[in-house]
Design goal:
The protein is α+β, with helices and mostly antiparallel strands. It is about 50% helix and about 10% strand. It is built from 15 helices and 6 strands. The longest helix has about 40 residues, at about 140-175.
Length: about 375
């Protein structure tokens, strides 16, 4: 039997979000008008800047937002020149020409301070500090804040680098082992995108922050890492598996957990929340809500939400794309099958509804990351 750690986020958890709240508390002691601090992450591969963590004491936080850095010339200039920026009057200097700008103008913030974050000379993202007064960010205050910003930047950079290291290490193991089944290529990219899409559209009651969603996005492609221990004769079989072969292929879950536990143990990372999310995805992505899944027959909420998300993403992608044993299904048929599995008690209804509600984006993912 596999043990797992279900992630339930609260104000006491040692997430980056919690650490940012502590950081903000310390700043408020000296600078009570700085009512928001947020960090956006930069992804080099797609030139993407996306919301990540925030501490918002007044106003409404913007979440699940992303854009390309090249579409924000002012931030790109800061990144290129490694400079900070002060805006003394947001209402006068910002135009409502983007979703983010329109949101910012609606919050009542007066001035802001923006600091790019680097790790080994590579852009990691930006820190944004907003005040409800003008003239908050004097040169003296900027110097004081830069010391504190460097502290949180080190923590953010360290944890982001750790998550990327975990993904790179697990991916390298896959490549070295020569895993050759359909879990390679565009399927893994689509898995990440579908999982993020589902997570972003779940009800607010799930309390999935951008930080958690980012980790689900990063780790979803590792769900079947244990297949490196399954013989090709079974993994690549075109015909129906025998009961004995089915038992062997189901062992990929326990093999995957063993692999990731060794990696996490060697790095001393088993206790970190991102590592828990990775482990939950690998250990529980074949569990069904009614207890009929494997390897532990978990029921309902005993299955971590990150695993329930990945299960729906995996089944949807498998149905809508060609496999050695089947032709691709039309998207409406695949959605109907997912709903049938909800009615049968197999899948999380909210996860399937979240995918169905974002089908226009899902179609774009299929188009952009097609197997051709």
């Amino acid at each position: 039997m596999i043990t797992y750690q279900s992630v339930h986020i609260d104000s006491n958890s040692e997430t980056l979000t919690a650490k940012l709240h502590e950081f903000h508390d310390a700043i408020l002691c000296d600078h009570p008008h700085i009512i928001r601090i947020a960090c956006a992450l930069y992804e080099h591969k797609h030139d993407t800047l996306k919301t990540f963590i925030h501490s918002t004491r007044e106003g409404h936080a913007i979440t699940a937002y992303q854009t390309t850095l090249s579409n924000v010339p002012s931030l790109k200039s800061l990144a290129d020149n490694q400079e900070c920026r002060v805006i003394e009057n947001i209402q006068l200097e910002i135009k409502p020409d983007t979703e983010h700008s329109a949101w910012l103008l609606g919050q009542g913030y007066v001035s802001s301070f923006t600091v790019p974050i680097y790790h080994h000379n590579h852009l990691v993202g930006f820190l944004f500090l907003d005040s409800d007064e003008t003239n908050t960010f004097t040169e003296q205050v900027q110097r004081q804040l830069l010391v504190k910003c460097n502290q949180i930047a080190e923590v953010v950079s360290g944890e982001v680098s750790t998550a990327q290291l975990l993904v790179a290490t697990a991916s390298a193991i896959r490549n070295i082992a020569g895993l050759r089944d359909f879990e390679t290529g565009m399927h893994l990219t689509r898995m990440a995108e579908f999982s993020k899409l589902i997570a972003q559209h779940l009800p607010a009651s799930y309390q999935l922050t951008d930080e958690i969603i980012e980790h689900i996005y990063l780790f979803a492609p590792l769900h079947d890492i244990g297949k490196i221990g399954i013989p090709d004769a079974i993994l690549l079989k075109n015909g129906k598996l025998t009961p004995e072969e089915r038992k062997i292929i189901e062992m990929h879950v326990t093999k995957g957990v063993s692999i990731i536990d060794e990696i996490l143990g060697n790095f001393g990372l088993l206790s970190l929340q991102p590592a828990q999310i990775m482990r939950n995805i690998i250990a529980c992505h074949h569990e069904y809500m009614d207890g009929s899944g494997y390897p532990n027959g978990l029921v309902g909420d005993a299955i971590p939400i990150e695993a329930r998300i990945v299960t729906v993403a995996d089944i949807f992608d498998a149905l809508t794309h060609e496999r050695p044993y089947k032709k691709p299904w039309p998207i409406p048929n695949a959605l109907a099958e997912l709903q049938k599995m909800v009615n049968d008690g197999k899948l999380d209804e909210h996860c399937v509804n979240a995918l169905a509600a974002s089908m226009s984006e899902a179609r774009l993912i299929v188009k952009e990351y097609n197997d051709a």
